């Protein structure tokens, strides 16, 4: 068009220096990906030439450069004062005539194409923005639902001024960018009516672990600024790339966010947009469907393939035409830079939990909490303090870099606070809802993001452990090291540790943490007392029925584990709660017997085939069938615990087949937990029904030695290395080797005692399954080395 304005449809990544990374990327997608199903709204962009010529007006550039040259950006008050002065100068300087005329002409063309009723988004795009080694995301302004030429011009002026927001100035200094070398382009783009639809952010990898085979999607009602800013706790979805590309159901995980507010158009109001509450019933439902999550992931994959790198993408669903649109795409700049070194953080002691939310960054930090509700109090934050606030925006960056940890009431894993925390390498817990009320100003706290998706703020300065491991240095070993992983939240993270799969995935963790309700209560929901129904209803509201909630949550947990560790086997042990543990679930006391010794009571295989529990267990079967047969994650194998007799073995195997899980069909292997003396004594007979054993050293030890492992009075006698226990293990291993069948061990013993792991290796065991935090040390021990 001209040196002042360019159509987005005519731009590409070669134009970054002219229109910035954001606008160049929009043009790149319009030109190259529109015919591949990626829908990007059109518009125009002002050029860097236009911006630089504007700054040359009336000596504006000289005044700005002089002010910045004298500025100490670590003096937050001086930074705020200088930034405000510069922005005022920019707003008071009129556009040069050629730029004014070019904007007029471009808008006239758009109005002719789209009509006068359409509104526009005016976004910033810095010429150094969104390059592979820097993230300028969110530093400059975005204006939504802008109507009419005069308003567009005013917001372009605001965009130009936003290059001198406090955070933008500080970031350029800290990253070594010369202020004068960074220019700004304003993008004017057709608005998508997500104000009556939904919107969010997605990444083509897991933002916490860097796992590359998932697309992570956040979604909420209304315009996307609420998600980007962290003003809402959004819904979350994980979509598995290989499963999606195979044409199968591919949503691994779904988390319902609070979605308390949304930004919508303010029709006839004083401002273009306004923030309103979301109806209570809508908060408990997902803001997008599985089909929409999968369609978003397809577009994300198309974009990632084109750019050949992980991407950070903003999307919107139009509430009028129902279509999904991409409104921004830029390189992901944190996890894509990580190398082969694994950092390990672990709490050494557990304290009182004050608050909790979504964990960001996998680290642990501790310090004095400073509850800051306004930037006017920013000087109260000293280096090493823990910043506690409602939410953050770009102006908070100068004090965020001082913090040992960051805690917010609001926000999800793609909000501003989360993005900056990852960039800074600082642990953050976002979306706590009430952290600013629960944490006292001046209180000593420890912030742990090393325990899964949930981050915890503990009272006091607690001890924690930090270490690093260079993964490329791991030696060869003569057996398979698998892992005991029950927590799907940690699956992507743990998959980065050298492994041969999951030797034990406990369904109890999924049932306890992702469901929390007794399965019979969900099957008999309509017959529950009103108080229990009221307690359970909001927990299951996003799913089509109570029964579907139970099945779907188990399927989500198992599929996440399977996707993280594929193609390695993932051996899923069906539920092995004891009656007292089931009683701890919501409504549990209604259904569970009171047993004198639940450890050897109503558990394992005997539960599955009982009339009282079989319908509950069949929901587990349906979930596993869904993961294997519908999603195609056939690396899932099934393990049956606590099989006392051969009759129980036969009955359980038959019941699995009746529920569509027939041994050998679709490659299904059935493994038995070998944890009772009867299992070792009759090992050959039990192997008629199963494809191998996984030895449970905890129960085998207590039942061989007649010890209650929960009794402190005799705890000193509990040792898996006892000769009698070893004799049982040797019998089981020998029987499996003689039949050419799998034999592994998944009990606590090898994790606690590397010398036992070595003995098992000498016995010819197929695999040793360890707790993730012991894998490296045991691996090195078995290789004949000692970890430093």
Automatic annotation (TrEMBL):
One of its GO terms (molecular function) is pyruvate, water dikinase activity. Residues 475-782 form the PEP-utilising enzyme C-terminal domain. Residues 381-452 form the PEP-utilising enzyme mobile domain. Keywords: ATP-binding, Kinase, Magnesium, Metal-binding, Nucleotide-binding, Pyruvate, Transferase. Its EC number is 2.7.9.2. GO terms for biological process: gluconeogenesis. Pathway: Carbohydrate biosynthesis; gluconeogenesis. Residues 17-341 form the Pyruvate phosphate dikinase AMP/ATP-binding domain. Its cofactor is Mg(2+). Catalyzes the phosphorylation of pyruvate to phosphoenolpyruvate. Belongs to the PEP-utilizing enzyme family. This is Phosphoenolpyruvate synthase. It comes from Candidatus Sedimenticola endophacoides.
